[in-house]
Write a structure and sequence with these properties.
Residues 265-317 are annotated as: Disordered. The protein has helices at 81-87, 124-137, 192-204, 217-231, 256-265, 276-306, and strands spanning 8-16, 19-27, 39-40, 45-46, 67-72, 75-79, 94-102, 111-119, 139-147, 150-159, 162-168. The chain is an alpha+beta fold.
Length: 317
C-alpha cells in the first residue's frame, strides 16, 4: 500500500439529528503511474495545451472563451460565469447524513472515490460511538457533502479502526445492465455436473484477500525501462522556455565544500592582494587628501604643544 496521506483534503463535521462530530478527510488513494509529458522531438521543447478553434485552426485567447451546454444538435445555451456561480451548491462544511441503510445494499457500481474520516479532538467520543454503532447494526450512513464546490452523494461506513467516506455516483450516472448482451438462460444454462466441477475449482483456488501480492505490470516495466535508460546516460535535456534561459553548466564539477576549505587554509584570505584598479583608486584618494592630512597634522601638533605646561622654575637659595 502507498504511504498514508498527511494532507487534509476537507474539514467539517458529520451531522445527523442533533449529533455534530467535527472531522477531517484524508485521501485514501494515490496515483502512482508515471506521467508522460509531451515533448517536441525536433527541438526538445515542452509542448503545452493550447485552445484552438476547430473551425479556423487559430488559437483563442482565454478571455474570449465562454461556456455553453448543447441542448440540441448544434444548438448551445451560453452561460456566464455569474450564472454558473449562482447554480453552485452552498457549502455547509458538513457530511449531512439523511438515512442509514444496510451497508451491503449499495451496489459496487455506485462506489467512486474513498476518503478516510478522522475525528477532531473535540469529537473523538462521538466519533467512536458512531463507528461502533454502525459496526453493530451493519448500517452505513447515506449522506450529501460538498467538496470543492461539487455536491456528492456519499456513504459513511466503518473501515479498519475508523470511518471511511465513499463518494457515490448519482442514480442517473449509472447505466442499466445491457439486457441484450446477456446469454439465453434456456440454451446456455449450465448442468448440475458442470456446476459441481466449477465449485470445486473455485474452492481449490480460494485464498485470503491480499492486494499486495498483485502489481501493475505496466507501471513496473515502465519504471525499470526508465531507470535502465537513465543509468545508461540516455537522458535528454529540455530546452528552456523564452525568458527562462539559464547559463550552460560547466564541464568541470566544482566541489563547493573543498573550495571553502582551501579558502580558509590559504594565507591570502587574511590579506588578499588588491587589484590594480583598487590600488589606483586608493593612490588617487591619498593624493587628493594629502594637503588636508598635512594641514590637520600641523594643527594637531601646534595644539598639542600649546597644551603642554612649562616646568616650574626653581627658586634660588
Amino acid at each position: 500500500m502507498a504511504t498514508a496521506s498527511t494532507r487534509t483534503v476537507w474539514k467539517g463535521a458529520i451531522s445527523f439529528g442533533l449529533v455534530h462530530i467535527p472531522v477531517a478527510l484524508y485521501s485514501a488513494t494515490a496515483e502512482t503511474r508515471p506521467r508522460f509529458n509531451l515533448i517536441d522531438k525536433a527541438s526538445m521543447s515542452p509542448v503545452g495545451n493550447k485552445q484552438v478553434s476547430k473551425t479556423t485552426g487559430e488559437a483563442v485567447q482565454r478571455e474570449e472563451l465562454v461556456k455553453g451546454i448543447e441542448v440540441e444538435d448544434g444548438q448551445y445555451v451560453v452561460l456566464s460565469k455569474e450564472e454558473i456561480r449562482s447554480a453552485l451548491p452552498k457549502s455547509t462544511q458538513t457530511i449531512e447524513i439523511e438515512a442509514f441503510v444496510q451497508a451491503g445494499d449499495i451496489p459496487p457500481v455506485y462506489f467512486q472515490k474513498p476518503y478516510y474520516v478522522a475525528p477532531d479532538r473535540k469529537g473523538q467520543k462521538a466519533y467512536l460511538l458512531l463507528r461502533d454503532t454502525l459496526r453493530r447494526t451493519g448500517k452505513a450512513g447515506l449522506a450529501r457533502v460538498v467538496i470543492s464546490t461539487k455536491q456528492h452523494l456519499a456513504t459513511l461506513a466503518p473501515y479498519q479502526d475508523g470511518l471511511a467516506l465513499y463518494l457515490l455516483r448519482w442514480a442517473d450516472e449509472v447505466r442499466d445492465f445491457p439486457a441484450s448482451a446477456m446469454p439465453d438462460a434456456g440454451t446456455a444454462a449450465p448442468t448440475e455436473r458442470e456446476m459441481k466441477m466449477a465449485e470445486q475449482l473455485v474452492n481449490d483456488m480460494a485464498d485470503a484477500w491480499s492486494p499486495s501480492l498483485f502489481h501493475d505490470e505496466f507501471k513496473q516495466k515502465l519504471n525499470e525501462l526508465v531507470q535502465a535508460k537513465a543509468k545508461a546516460g540516455d537522458v535528454a535535456t529540455l530546452q528552456p522556455l523564452p525568458g527562462e534561459e539559464v547559463a550552460a553548466p560547466s564541464a568541470e564539477i566544482i566541489d563547493l565544500t573543498e573550495l571553502l576549505k582551501r579558502s580558509l587554509k590559504s594565507p591570502a584570505t587574511a590579506t588578499a592582494p588588491a587589484t590594480r584598479a583598487s590600488r589606483a583608486r586608493a593612490a588617487a584618494a591619498n593624493d587628493e587628501a594629502a594637503p588636508l592630512k598635512r594641514a590637520a597634522a600641523s594643527k594637531t601638533a601646534a595644539k598639542s604643544r600649546a597644551s603642554v605646561k612649562p616646568a616650574p622654575r626653581r627658586k634660588s637659595a
